[in-house]
Design brief:
Blueprint (H helix, E strand, L loop, with lengths): L2 E7 L4 H13 L5 E4 L16 H8 L5 H19 L4 E6 L2 E2 L4 H11 L5 E3 L8 E6 L5 E5 L9 E5 H11 L6 H6 L1 H4 L3 E4 L5 E2 L11 H7 L7 H19 L2
Parallel strand pairs: 1-2, 1-3, 5-9
Antiparallel strand pairs: 3-8, 4-10, 5-8, 6-7, 7-9
Protein name: Glycosyltransferase family 25 protein
InterPro entries: Glyco_trans_25
Pfam families: Glyco_transf_25
Length: 246
């Protein structure tokens, strides 16, 4: 399998690129830098392919500039994969700690789940895990009943998966990590590992998307959040049905 390794990195974050590149070089892993979209340098009038009303209904808030940049950067990675000759790509944000066996474990995970389109390799939670396979390295792969699991900092996606998901993901109506997990919407077979196979670097605590205060400032309050609660309940049942269909 020919696996590309994409690292999403902002032009103004040269220190992050240097750190992740140094680790990749240490382990003889070829990485490709994908220049991230910097949402903080754009006005909302510059945002493209955004379903503002859909995001507000599902998210209960407006979009942060950093969120928009993150979304467009991941979409760029999927498009780049389809334009390449890779069979699959390991997509990482620049705060992931690269390990010596990362690419080998990612390939082994895809070999253990040949029908997988996307496998998340890092999550903030994995409750209600349903296992379907175990890789040669002992990594359990499956789906989770509970979610969203949080984070799109590291995942492996096949060419087939990118082709299936991209048409449904071009318009932003969720944060990218949530949109990626919604296999019931974009028709991809989305799986996850039970235990993360990577960790975050120390600089990950300095979020380039937004702080808790930033999220609080754009969050709706009172009756305006009622549609969000109802839609999230419906999404939760869709997620459970999708997980059980594994």
């Amino acid at each position: 399998m020919k696996l590309g390794v994409y690292i999403i990195n902002l032009d103004r974050s040269a220190d992050r690129w240097a750190a992740v590149r140094a680790r990749a070089d240490e382990y003889c892993i070829d990485v490709i830098r994908v220049a991230a979209t910097d949402g903080h340098e754009l006005s909302q009038e510059d945002f493209r392919d955004v379903d503002w009303k859909g995001f507000a209904r599902h998210g209960g808030r407006t979009i942060l500039p950093g969120e928009y940049g993150c979304y467009r950067s991941h979409i760029k990675c999927l498009s780049t994969l389809l334009e390449s000759d890779f069979d699959a790509a390991l997509v990482m944000e620049d705060d992931i700690e690269i390990t010596v066996d990362l690419t080998k474990r990612a390939i082994a995970i895809l070999e253990a789940t040949p029908d997988a389109d996307v496998v998340k390799l890092f999550n903030h939670r994995s409750r209600g895990f349903l296992s379907v396979a175990t890789s040669a390295f002992g990594d359990e792969i499956g789906r989770c009943l509970h979610g969203p699991q949080g984070s799109a900092a590291c995942y492996v996606i096949t060419r087939r998966g990118a082709g299936r998901a991209l048409p449904f993901l071009r318009a932003m109506r969720f944060p990218f990590d949530v949109a990626l997990e919604r296999g019931w919407h974009h028709g991809s077979n989305v799986l996850t590992v039970r235990h993360n196979i990577v960790s975050l670097m120390s600089h990950s605590s300095n979020s380039q998307i937004g702080s808790r205060a930033d999220y609080s400032q754009v969050k709706f309050v009172g009756p305006k959040r009622l549609p969000t609660h109802l839609l999230r309940a419906a999404e939760y049942f869709r997620r459970i049905r999708y997980a059980l269909a594994i």
